[in-house]
Amino acid sequence: MYTAAILDESSVKTLRALSEKAFDLTGFQFLTAQGQTLPHHMTVNLGPLDPGLNPGIELDETTGLVVSRLGRNDRIGVCAAQIETSLCGSKRLRSANRFPHVTLCIMPWAKPKDANKIFSEDDTIWVDLECKLVAVLRESCSPRG
Protein backbone atom coordinates (compact mmCIF):
# COMPACT_ATOMS: atom_id res chain seq x y z
CA MET A 1 0.00 0.00 0.00
CA TYR A 2 1.09 3.56 -0.65
CA THR A 3 -0.40 7.06 -0.46
CA ALA A 4 -0.28 9.12 -3.63
CA ALA A 5 -1.67 12.06 -5.54
CA ILE A 6 -3.45 10.15 -8.34
CA LEU A 7 -3.62 12.19 -11.55
CA ASP A 8 -6.91 13.00 -13.24
CA GLU A 9 -7.34 11.94 -16.89
CA SER A 10 -6.68 15.42 -18.27
CA SER A 11 -3.37 15.62 -16.39
CA VAL A 12 -2.36 12.17 -17.68
CA LYS A 13 -3.02 13.31 -21.26
CA THR A 14 -1.13 16.57 -20.70
CA LEU A 15 1.95 14.81 -19.32
CA ARG A 16 1.98 12.26 -22.13
CA ALA A 17 1.75 14.97 -24.77
CA LEU A 18 4.49 17.07 -23.14
CA SER A 19 6.83 14.10 -22.78
CA GLU A 20 6.28 13.03 -26.40
CA LYS A 21 7.01 16.59 -27.54
CA ALA A 22 10.12 16.93 -25.35
CA PHE A 23 11.76 13.56 -26.09
CA ASP A 24 12.06 10.82 -28.68
CA LEU A 25 10.36 8.05 -26.72
CA THR A 26 11.17 5.19 -29.07
CA GLY A 27 11.43 2.07 -26.91
CA PHE A 28 9.65 3.63 -23.93
CA GLN A 29 6.18 2.50 -22.89
CA PHE A 30 3.33 4.04 -20.91
CA LEU A 31 2.53 0.74 -19.17
CA THR A 32 4.15 -1.15 -16.30
CA ALA A 33 4.80 -4.90 -16.28
CA GLN A 34 1.82 -5.16 -13.89
CA GLY A 35 -0.48 -3.40 -16.38
CA GLN A 36 -0.73 0.01 -14.70
CA THR A 37 -0.85 2.88 -17.17
CA LEU A 38 1.66 5.70 -16.87
CA PRO A 39 1.78 8.46 -15.87
CA HIS A 40 -0.33 7.65 -12.83
CA HIS A 41 0.66 9.39 -9.58
CA MET A 42 3.10 11.26 -7.38
CA THR A 43 4.00 9.10 -4.37
CA VAL A 44 3.45 10.82 -1.03
CA ASN A 45 4.55 8.00 1.30
CA LEU A 46 4.58 4.24 1.61
CA GLY A 47 1.70 2.87 3.67
CA PRO A 48 -1.36 4.82 4.80
CA LEU A 49 -1.39 8.63 4.79
CA ASP A 50 1.25 9.77 7.28
CA PRO A 51 -0.21 12.58 9.45
CA GLY A 52 3.30 13.38 10.73
CA LEU A 53 4.47 14.12 7.19
CA ASN A 54 1.27 15.94 6.18
CA PRO A 55 -0.63 17.21 9.24
CA GLY A 56 -4.14 18.47 8.57
CA ILE A 57 -4.39 16.88 5.12
CA GLU A 58 -7.11 14.32 4.44
CA LEU A 59 -7.57 11.60 1.86
CA ASP A 60 -9.71 12.41 -1.19
CA GLU A 61 -8.57 16.05 -1.21
CA THR A 62 -7.98 17.59 -4.62
CA THR A 63 -4.29 18.26 -5.09
CA GLY A 64 -2.61 20.76 -7.38
CA LEU A 65 0.80 19.76 -8.70
CA VAL A 66 3.23 22.05 -10.54
CA VAL A 67 5.81 20.42 -12.80
CA SER A 68 9.14 22.26 -13.16
CA ARG A 69 10.95 19.97 -15.63
CA LEU A 70 10.93 16.66 -17.45
CA GLY A 71 13.84 14.24 -17.29
CA ARG A 72 14.90 11.27 -19.40
CA ASN A 73 17.62 8.77 -18.58
CA ASP A 74 18.21 6.06 -21.19
CA ARG A 75 20.64 4.08 -19.01
CA ILE A 76 18.09 3.83 -16.19
CA GLY A 77 15.23 3.55 -18.69
CA VAL A 78 12.87 6.11 -17.20
CA CYS A 79 11.31 9.49 -17.97
CA ALA A 80 9.84 11.54 -15.10
CA ALA A 81 8.28 14.91 -14.34
CA GLN A 82 9.79 16.71 -11.35
CA ILE A 83 7.14 18.26 -9.10
CA GLU A 84 8.11 21.70 -7.84
CA THR A 85 5.00 22.37 -5.75
CA SER A 86 2.10 20.27 -4.50
CA LEU A 87 -0.84 21.75 -2.60
CA CYS A 88 -4.02 20.40 -1.00
CA GLY A 89 -6.05 23.57 -0.79
CA SER A 90 -3.64 26.04 0.80
CA LYS A 91 -1.56 23.36 2.56
CA ARG A 92 1.69 22.08 1.10
CA LEU A 93 1.59 18.36 0.37
CA ARG A 94 4.94 16.81 1.26
CA SER A 95 6.38 13.69 -0.32
CA ALA A 96 8.66 11.23 1.46
CA ASN A 97 10.67 11.11 -1.78
CA ARG A 98 13.71 13.39 -1.89
CA PHE A 99 12.63 14.51 -5.36
CA PRO A 100 8.84 14.49 -5.72
CA HIS A 101 7.97 13.34 -9.23
CA VAL A 102 5.59 11.52 -11.53
CA THR A 103 7.00 8.62 -13.56
CA LEU A 104 6.03 9.31 -17.17
CA CYS A 105 7.16 6.21 -19.04
CA ILE A 106 9.67 3.38 -18.81
CA MET A 107 11.72 1.02 -20.93
CA PRO A 108 10.33 -2.56 -20.85
CA TRP A 109 13.12 -3.67 -18.48
CA ALA A 110 12.77 -0.73 -16.07
CA LYS A 111 10.48 -0.22 -13.09
CA PRO A 112 8.56 2.99 -12.28
CA LYS A 113 10.39 3.33 -8.93
CA ASP A 114 13.65 3.64 -10.91
CA ALA A 115 12.59 7.24 -11.57
CA ASN A 116 13.91 8.06 -8.07
CA LYS A 117 17.44 7.50 -9.45
CA ILE A 118 17.45 9.94 -12.37
CA PHE A 119 17.61 13.13 -10.31
CA SER A 120 21.20 12.66 -9.18
CA GLU A 121 22.62 11.29 -12.43
CA ASP A 122 24.81 13.35 -14.79
CA ASP A 123 23.48 11.55 -17.87
CA THR A 124 19.85 12.59 -17.30
CA ILE A 125 18.58 14.95 -20.00
CA TRP A 126 16.36 17.74 -18.64
CA VAL A 127 13.79 19.97 -20.32
CA ASP A 128 12.58 22.91 -18.21
CA LEU A 129 8.88 23.73 -18.40
CA GLU A 130 5.99 24.61 -16.15
CA CYS A 131 2.68 22.85 -16.19
CA LYS A 132 -0.12 22.50 -13.66
CA LEU A 133 -1.77 19.17 -12.92
CA VAL A 134 -4.77 18.02 -10.90
CA ALA A 135 -4.79 14.92 -8.72
CA VAL A 136 -6.69 13.39 -5.80
CA LEU A 137 -4.97 12.17 -2.64
CA ARG A 138 -5.59 8.44 -2.21
CA GLU A 139 -4.25 5.28 -0.65
CA SER A 140 -3.61 2.61 -3.26
CA CYS A 141 -2.88 -1.10 -3.20
CA SER A 142 -2.28 -1.38 -6.94
CA PRO A 143 1.15 -2.57 -8.09
CA ARG A 144 3.91 0.03 -7.96
CA GLY A 145 6.56 -1.89 -9.90
How many DSSP-defined strands? 7
- Average of pLDDT: 95
Share of helix among residues? under 10%
**H/E element string?**
EHEEEEEE
How many domain modules?
1
CATH level-4 homologous superfamily: 2',3'-cyclic nucleotide 3'-phosphodiesterase superfamily
- Nearest-angstrom radius of gyration? 14 Å
Strand content: 35-45%
Largest sheet: 7 strands, antiparallel
Structural class: mainly beta
Keywords:
145 residues, mainly beta, 2',3'-cyclic nucleotide 3'-phosphodiesterase fold, seven-stranded antiparallel β-sheet, 7 strands, 10% helix
A few lines on this structure:
It is built from 1 helix and 7 strands; from the N terminus they run βαββββββ.
Task: Write up what this structure looks like.
This protein is mainly beta and 145 residues long. It has one helix spanning 9-22; strands spanning 2-7, 41-46, 62-73, 78-88, 91-92, 101-106, 125-140. Strands 1, 2, 3, 4, 5, 6 and 7 form a seven-stranded antiparallel beta sheet that branches. Strand 4 and strand 5 form a beta hairpin. The two termini are 12 Å apart.
What's the helix and strand layout?
Blueprint: E1 2-7, H1 9-22, E2 41-46, E3 62-73, E4 78-88, E5 91-92, E6 101-106, E7 125-140
Antiparallel strand pairs: 1-2, 1-7, 3-4, 3-7, 4-5, 4-6
